């Protein structure tokens, strides 16, 4: 589009104002002025459409429009002269009147000549393009009609699902407390914040996002604020971007029919312009699945707001602020369920109240689950309800409607993921419901079986969290460099876990990639026992039981198993004999959810785990690690959490470098009987990371710690009985991170600490008494130190050191306390 086109509309507008003034003032020019007003009134909408269309005109059209712009510019000068001419100068006024008549004829000729030709040409082009589009549409329609059958993923099936969502939205939330809270928060973003042009509603599938968006559009205050200029569009997984952009552009420009005909005049690419003040407009984009699609649908124009509704979390650079939809409270859940199951908002006297509440509890406040499961149980006998409860406990669909309307609809979110991320989501079914999953456990699994590194595994975790497929429970320090994965836990809504189980449990039991027990049981599934005559080809095996004795196990062969997860609740636990038949096992996770540490039996099975690389033990008595019993030559990572370790760390029989010749990471957390580390730990020359945290009785470290030349990370977090560090710590030439936070009785640091030439980061919150003058002198020699985390009361001492250490950043820590670790 040429530069002159932008001025044609401005000149015509200004000329129109002058002509109105002439019509009122000058009798000689009134007739010409009135005719010109009529012609220019007709031309202005066409000029403005060309101005904002973004379409490049042909050379001959551009030349004609340029000449017409010059004519209008001359007319504007003439109008100013007419208004400036005094009434007494009759001769001059007659000359100006003749010129006005000439201008009128020029404008009239353009309107009746070239402009009509332009219109005819446009009609011809539009007709030709329409014919072409109908030809293409006919071909696409023929293809799509073949995919209309259920299960083919066709557009009819998608439309039916969308209609079901709209039907779901029409129900609303019984009681409305949660809905009103969400409405108020979203309204504040939309009508109370002029600085937010794009806002969002974010939540798990089936949580009522569309319901909330519809209620926003119906709200009288919102409608009044936008003067009823609200457009609601469903984007979906496979959107027609051109059609959607045309509808939005037509709505903005007041030419809504354009959205249903063609998008010739829709600007290409991302539109961002300043129109000055205009009418307030709200466009709601529901069911958005892709950032790239969203960016094409956002028009950044003053007084124009976009409300994005999605299961996915988008960057704040695109969606400036979001409201996360909250799940229903217990009373709201019961009301919604009863409305679907009984046609009323409370439990009728004839129903089994305990059974109803148990089923409602399984829905965990998810509106879609409450409605679908409630409707599935309507008018069914009590025995059917009892069966449904058991199936829900096993993570199985209770009927075809439950499978199709809830699980299959929720599965859309998972099918949209790429293959590797989807596999990681399905792995979450390996862990019990309503329990926090240590991220370290997930990372270990994913690294070993999906051929990725820790950084990629963490990125997948963030992606799943952003897509509302899991929730992160973080320690305040998580996300910093050198932060540990075991400081993060993962939780997941039960319906999402049921979905992972539902997708994993398809097919023949012996051929499943994941062999999972959905709920804790007193014995192994009978389905497994019936198929022991064949090998199981599972890559991941997850068992969830109470106490297991030797006789409770049966022989199973797992030639392809790489991960074994043993979840149990008991005081004693006999390790499964079939571990011997897992020659490829790389990661073993043993987690006791009981109240006290469990005694592990049959620890001798470890002698055959030649490929085991990662071992996680939680809330168990760690057996004595005697040399002939256990030799895990490929073990790289050992984690002991909430364990009793004093027996296993007997220095008289323990030779760590012989048992773990390749150990690179050792984690000991919340082990309250750890008093001293075995001396042989100093001889594990492969060790790169040592984390001893929340061990409240640890009183000293081995004097020869300096022998660990490859050690890069040393965490001694929350060890209150530790009073000093050995001088040999200065010999840890590779150490990059040191955490001594909450070591409240640590009085000073050895002067040798100044020799840590590679130290980059140090965390020393809540141990302020160590900053003696001698310690400050030693710390000033740490030329590679880039970041220190400390308390406010000692920050001034570090500020003084900053003067001699220009690359140092001092971070003052906020007070933060948590007992989340107690909530297993």
Automatic annotation (TrEMBL):
Gene3D superfamilies: Helical domain of apoptotic protease-activating factors, P-loop containing nucleotide triphosphate hydrolases, Ribonuclease Inhibitor, Winged helix-like DNA-binding domain superfamily/Winged helix DNA-binding domain. It comes from the Eukaryota. It holds the Pfam family NB-ARC. Keywords: Plant defense, Repeat. InterPro entries: Apaf_helical, LRR_dom_sf, LRR_R13L4/SHOC2-like, NB-ARC, P-loop_NTPase, Powdery_mildew-R_dom, WH-like_DNA-bd_sf. Residues 1-149 form the RPW8 domain. The keyword Repeat applies. Belongs to the disease resistance NB-LRR family. PANTHER family: PLANT BROAD-SPECTRUM MILDEW RESISTANCE PROTEIN RPW8, TIR-NBS TYPE DISEASE RESISTANCE PROTEIN-RELATED. This is RPW8 domain-containing protein. It comes from Hibiscus sabdariffa.
